[in-house]
Amino acid sequence: MSFDEDDTFREKWKDPAYRLGFVLGAVILGILSFLVIYFRVQLGLASGMIMPLMLFEHTGDNRSGKTFLMSLWGFFDWLAGRKVYANCRFDKSFIGSYDCFINYPHYHYDPTNLYYMSELHDCTVITDESGEYMDSRKSGADEVIEIGNFGKQATKQDVDWHWDTVYHDEIEKRIRRKWHYQINTVRVPLNPKKPLLFIRVESRNRYNPKFHKGYFPNPTWNVPISIFFSIYNDKATIRRRQLEGYA
For the segment 42-74, what is each residue's pLDDT rounded down to a tens digit? Predict the structure, then answer.
């Protein structure tokens, strides 16, 4: 800071409104930083891991919280300053021309181009409905092979890569073998027509077959899971299936 800038700051500091705004800004920033660390750590504890830069496979029944958990993970990464990439569906009828499944700032990409995206570094990549792109029945297709090649390099590029699937063996075998952590989600209650209370999160790493079990949010917090719903759009993937069915 130069002498002139220091003098300007001193003059501004004499204004009570400026001091109040400065203090409030610092307090809000502090609270946000605490919440990022707290909930990111709690999510890590629920799944048995704390902030790794790894590859994650999310499995579970439909409506069990796979996309929600991936979106939540990306949200905390975004708050921590990381870029988040999501494969939202291109549709000109929506604002911004994408039907987004996450509601915080992010970048769009096509999963078939992952291998050629040199800009992917120190970021989080979310691949929703990954079975559409990495189907084991298309294992010989060039685009599937290239997605697998991206997976080999992702951790070298400091990339967290999350993909989801209902069935583990739905994913092409060279890709599904790459996960460092497998996250299985079970909704509570099981009936998807009833309001979601929390998600049972079962996780294991590739070197330990035993699942670690936790809950998000932890029932002892007395925090409704609904406070996190605004970060993602659960209707986006439903619309994608409907519209692509007519394509």
Answer: 555 544 454 456 899 999 998 899 999 999 999
Cis peptide preceding 189, ω within 30 of 0: yes
The model scores a pTM over 0.70: yes
Give the tens place of pLDDT for each residue, 30-43. Answer: 555 555 555 555 55
Domain that residue 232 falls in: 51-246
- H helix intervals, the chain: 3-13, 16-47, 66-79, 142-153, 173-176, 236-246
Is position 128 within any domain?
A: yes
Q: Evaluate whether 243 touches 214 at the Cβ level (below 8 Å).
A: no
d(CA 45, CA 214): 7
Residue 17 lies in a domain: no
| 195 neighbors 72 (Cβ within 8 angstroms) | no
Number of independent structural domains in the chain: 1
Q: Distance (Å, rounded) from C-alpha 198 to C-alpha 125?
A: 25
- In a domain, residue 7? The reply is no
CATH assignment of the domain containing 153 = 3.40.50.300
Q: Is 104 exposed, middle or buried (0-12, 13-18, 19+ CB in 10 A)?
A: middle
Residue 148 within a domain: yes
